[in-house]
């Protein structure tokens, strides 16, 4: 397995020691059982066996995002797809993503050339962080400071169509993929993504450059994005939580 260092992993971490706290279920939409649990992800190996947890102040900001959304779009809610992700689950999902990419080739692992195998891993690691236990390079979700979210329509009682699925390994996952489209349906996807981004960034989160659903506050990725936008030298407040 190859490893591709992410640029944000060079950001130093000074963990503030905040505990994980549950995301209030009365405000947000959850899917139960969680999609990764349906696949067999080993949450039972972690002291925190639910993905619906965040560091305390990160959770507070998610509540703020909920309030901003409600003020402008009272028929919408934030659907929390994933938040805290133990290393064991990160490893399980990285392996699962590789198997899905392999399946799409129509080949078996035994028939892959070394170059093909490396290419598959590179595709996986464009979207999935390496399940590192190194305190200096934690996966964002394993810090409790990253959250995957989408919108849920309380009128239709269904998730809002954002133009691609969460975790989809394709160019359609780029936040602005549909921005220049001439198709009305695709422009609606972009509008939906913009609504989500606006309430999350207003609450202090920053969006992953390549994933419309991924937002973080206070982890290495957030600090790296913040530094790029503001020409500062912020460090991360949240490291590996275990």
TrEMBL record:
Residues annotated as site: Transition state stabilizer: 85
Classify the source by domain of life. Bacteria
Which cofactor names does the annotation list?
Answer: Zn(2+)
* Family annotation (Pfam families): Peptidase_M15
The EC number(s) given in the record are 3.4.13.22
- UniProt keyword annotations, A-Z: Cell wall biogenesis/degradation, Dipeptidase, Hydrolase, Metal-binding, Metalloprotease, Protease, Zinc
Residues of the active site are: 211 (proton donor/acceptor)
Q: How is the cofactor bound?
A: Binds 1 zinc ion per subunit.
Binding-site positions, Zn(2+): 141, 148, 214
Top enzyme category: hydrolase
Q: So what does this thing catalyse?
A: D-alanyl-D-alanine + H2O = 2 D-alanine
Q: Which family is this sequence assigned to? A: Belongs to the peptidase M15D family.
Q: Which PANTHER family match?
A: D-ALANYL-D-ALANINE DIPEPTIDASE
- General function of this protein: Catalyzes hydrolysis of the D-alanyl-D-alanine dipeptide.
Name of this protein:
D-alanyl-D-alanine dipeptidase
* Organism this protein belongs to: Limnospira platensis NIES-46
